[in-house]
Amino acid sequence: MIKIENVEKSFGELDILKGVSLTINKGDVVSILGASGSGKSTLVRCINGLEKIQAGTILVNELSVSDKKDLSNIRKNVSTVFQHFNLYPHLSIIDNITLAPIEVLGQSKEKATSKALELLQVVDLMDKANAFPAQLSGGQKQRIGICRALAMEPEYLLLDEVTSALDPEMTSEVLDVLAELARTGTTLIFVTHEIAFAKKISNRIVFLDEGKVRADLDKDNFFSATGGKKDPRIARFLEKMDSK
Ligand SMILES: Nc1ncnc2c1ncn2[C@@H]1O[C@H](COP(=O)(O)OP(=O)(O)O)[C@@H](O)[C@H]1O
Ligand SMILES: [Mg+2]
After folding, report:
1. Cα distance between residue 123 and residue 146, in whole Å
2. For ligand 1, atom 1, which residue shows the shortest CA distance?
3. Residues in domain ABC transporter (predicted)?
4. Cα(80)–Cα(148) distance, integer angstroms
């Protein structure tokens, strides 16, 4: 379980997260929605300890991200995929995927390679194992980014706008992979602007607004006129996204 309680995060004078509380259970598929600048990426970065929080607590399976000696264990359980793929350009695809399992988890090269090949099959990119990142399209790179995160066999996968740099066809390639993960029970925390997709795969929707959780609702409730949409702020946001 990830337990976020009263988290405050500021950059200098700028208060970004203003008392965020949120619990994510194993098997949850939680979409985080909200306007640009509402603090979604900052929250993701706080969850895996890339940003230091000023107040509150974030516990991952009871371990605190604010505790330096816990953080390396947390990072073994939480993998993050960002908007930009950040693959190592000088390493082949297979080496990109096996690097962390070998270096961080201490897996043998054989074990890491066989797992990587399995993952490449899932995202339908077996034929790219020995290619280099520069030889791949954006959608392919992002599917490799997801493989690389999954190679760590994380309990929690954080995805921050993983499709926003992709064209529609590549987006659907990547979303197909995520839908499959959701179906097979991977815990996903999914920051996205793909509302229709969020509606399809999530069990819960969290709406962040100016650094606060404005709604944390069961998916059906969030999209219903008598639930989330009763909040004019949320209704307006959804209308605006719909008309895009
Ligand atoms: N490293 C940083 N230094 C200063 N301000 C930042 C930093 N990172 C994010 N911010 C500010 O925090 C706010 C929230 O950003 P972000 O979490 O990226 O929002 P979102 O992902 O919802 O679009 C924005 O106003 C952004 O400019
Ligand atoms: Mg963001």
Report:
1. 9
2. 11
3. 2-235
4. 10
At 242, which amino acid appears?
D
Sign of CA dihedral 157, 82, 71, 217: negative
| The predicted structure's pLDDT at residue 83 | 82
Atom of ligand 1 lying closest to residue 12 CA: 4
- Taking Cα atoms as reference points, which of 166, 89, 76 lies closest to residue 177? 166
Closest C-alpha to 205, from 24, 19, 9, 33: 33
* pLDDT tens, residue by residue, 98-108: 999 999 899 99
User: Domains in the chain, please, with CATH?
Assistant: 2-242 (3.40.50.300)
| Whole-angstrom distance, CA of residue 140 vs CA of residue 125 | 8
Alpha-carbon distance 100 to 98, whole Å?
6
Mutational test site, ligand 1, from 8, 41, 43, 53, max ligand atoms within 8 Å of CB: 41
Give, as residue ranges, everything with CB less than 5 Å from ion ligand 2. Answer: 40-41
